[in-house]
Amino acid sequence: MGEEILQKLKQSVLAYDQTAAVDWARKAVEASIDPLRALDVLTEAIREIGEGFGKGDLFLPDMVGAADAMKAATPILEAAIERSGGKRETVGTVVLGTVYGDIHDIGKAMVATLMTAQGFKVLDLGVNITAEQFLAAVRETRPEILAMSSLLTTTAPEMKKVIDKLKSEGLREKLKVMVGGGAITESFAAGIGADGYDPTAVGGAVLARHLVGK
Amino acid sequence: MPTKGYLVERPLNILRPEEVEKIHEAMLRVLEQTGVVLDNERALNVLSDAGCAVDKKKKLVTFPPSLIEESLRKCPDKVLLKARNPQYDVELGGNRVTFCPWIGMDTVDLDTWERRTPTEQDFLNASKVLDYLNEVHVYGFGPYAHIEEKVASGVYGYLWLMAFNLRHCQKALFAAAQMETDAWMIRMFNAVGVRPAVLLSGAPPLTWPGHQLQLLFSSADANFPLNPFSGVAAGASSPATLAGTVVQNYAEVTAIIVLAQVYKPGIEVLVGNYSQVMGMRESCVIQGGPERALLDAAWSQIWRRNGIPCTGIVGSDAKAIDYQCAVEKTLSATIMALAGSNKIYFHGGVYDELTNHPVAAILDNDAAKMVGRILDGIRVDSATLAADLIREVGPAPGSFLSTKHTREYWKQEQILPDIFDRWPYPEWVNRGKKDSIARGKEKYEQILAKHEVPPLPAEQDRELASLLEQSKKDLQAKGLL
């Protein structure tokens, strides 16, 4: 019975079905299945989707669809882990947001979803985030990575402002900074002192793992 | 399952309807008042019997308008080509647009851009590529029009070429013959059960060579569709004005239609266009450019008026696979396709019919895919308008990426090029900063390594070899080799 529930949970991610993923995650908890094991199953499903993407058999909507299904099911399993006194191993914490003056959300949200699927705990601050808001979140959560997005050439300089503030407050060396978005190039990223840049959401999530040595 | 090309729902009309009628009236006047030279006794007799005025000394025929109109009406609106593999049978006509390789006399070195005569290995390599490419809907004449002397020479060369295509291509073919090779050509196609369209080449202005008219009769007897081309050069063998060139070209091809329909009523005709302009600065025929695209667009519109299938040729004056080559070819192909040309000679040509290369064909395949996507157009219905979905997703931070609708529809809306690079800059760097020719070369090597064209059944192959050998002896005995 337990194995059947886990297979259904996995299938719901492979079928990009958020509703089914939530249902089967709940059933897994109700059936007292180890929530850590259920999370592993979700990761297996995402890995399969990722492999298909890498081979060119699957595409971005499939990746994001599967990651969204996983993201919907994950809080149910995390709550069960917390209730049981256990702890979920993550590959690290990411604070991310779109910089001040820019309210573009989709690319950044895609990165957040795919980072979650890569095993990160992700704190998505949202859009139009000031340097002060980024720094407050860094001080509070002590993430391994700060990720910033800007679609506009006019708002890209905000990223440097945030990095400069991190430096002036002695926080810069304690985390990796990655940047992305339509207006960003690798030369710009290097010029403002970021640790990494990738032009795609999928690549950004992989880059995050590399930045934390995973 | 092989694709059969694209449908153009509302073909481009480059001419106003009244302009089409003016061109038609002018064509009738040319054929009635000036006429066409047909250098073939039998053709003169057939047309004389049908009511045309024939000056046998000048071999000049003038045509009554009523006979012209009647002949145009007799042409079927579709032409059926039967391929060696029935999956590749294709019916040309109506709003169907297909792509086909263009030929070259030479191949070209992709590093030095030096030209050289193709070897048998070049033929084999190119035919593999053309068999593989999914936007090659019809094979046509194949990649090259000429093989090195030690393999085949003179009039025998074209027979060798026809046999090669029958052996190494499973898609629909076109045929051609020179001098006294028509009977052998027909026997070879019949031996393999392939029904080609047969190219008939004119010699403008207003003249058709005798052996091409003989080919008309023998092809009609074999029940093969005809593909008459005139091949005008505006300013030299036709008027410098594009309208005048269209009128003359129309008259030249229509003269052949009349002869064909009088001889064999209802015979399928696929009218070809190879209209060019004379380069007055360069002193050579101009192969690419907007003039040729306009001539082809007008051609398609005129034949749509008559309900008769037509073809066109994409050309370029570029000597290398470069920016000029891509612009000239794709501009022409796009306009021709939008105008509803039923078969567009496109893949592989570099310097028009002078040089050809399979790597160009591989790049052209992506271009054909793009042109085809434009023909497919924008589908508008309740599902594609997606108003309900837009309401469901709502304003930001709503996203369409992970919706079922996106997963269902994006593949219908977007093409996936094989060679053209759409990756972000760092990925392009990771992949070696290759340009499109370098990527085309890689694909070329992959196709050569992996793709095989199914061989002809052994019995048919033996029959072809035997016919080829007999034809050589026959041509030698007649002093033609």
**What do we call the CATH topology of the largest domain in chain A?**
Rossmann fold
Structural class of chain B: alpha/beta
Q: How many individual β-strands of chain B?
A: 20
Strand order, main sheet of chain B: write it out: 1-7-18-17
CATH architecture of the largest domain in chain B: Alpha-Beta Barrel
Strand order of the largest sheet of chain A: 2-1-3-4-5
- CATH topology descriptor of the largest domain in chain B: TIM Barrel
Mean of pLDDT of chain A:
92
User: What CATH architecture of the largest domain in chain A do you see?
Assistant: 3-Layer(aba) Sandwich
Question: Which sheet architecture does the biggest sheet of chain A show?
Answer: 5 strands, parallel
Rg of chain A, Cα atoms, Å: 18 Å
- Secondary structure: helix percent of chain B: 40-55%
In sequence order, what are the helices and strands of chain A, one letter per element? HHHHEHEHEHEHEH
CATH class of the largest domain in chain B: Alpha Beta
Low-confidence stretches of chain A: none
CATH homologous superfamily label of the largest domain in chain A: Cobalamin-binding domain
Q: Quick one: how many beta strands of chain A?
A: 5
Mean pLDDT across all amino acids of chain B: 95
Q: How many individual helices of chain A? A: 9
Give a structural overview.
The complex is a heterodimer of chains A (214) and B (481). Chain A is built from 9 helices and 5 strands. In chain A, helix 1 packs antiparallel against helix 2, helix 2 packs parallel to helix 4 and helix 3 runs antiparallel to helix 4. Chain A has 2 domains: 82 residues, Methionine synthase domain (Methyltransferase, Methionine Synthase (B12-binding Domains), Chain A, domain 1); 120 residues, Cobalamin-binding domain (Rossmann fold). Chain B is an alpha/beta fold and 481 residues long. Chain B folds into 2 domains: 315 residues, Trimethylamine methyltransferase-like (TIM Barrel), CATH 3.20.20; 32 residues, no CATH class. In chain B, the strands form 7 sheets. In chain B, strands 1-7-18-17 form a 4-stranded mixed beta sheet. Chain B has a 4-stranded mixed beta sheet with strand order 3-4-2-12. The mean pLDDT of chain B is 95. Classes of the chains: A alpha/beta (214), B alpha/beta (481). Chains A and B meet through helix 4 and helix 5 of A and helix 14 and helix 15 of B.
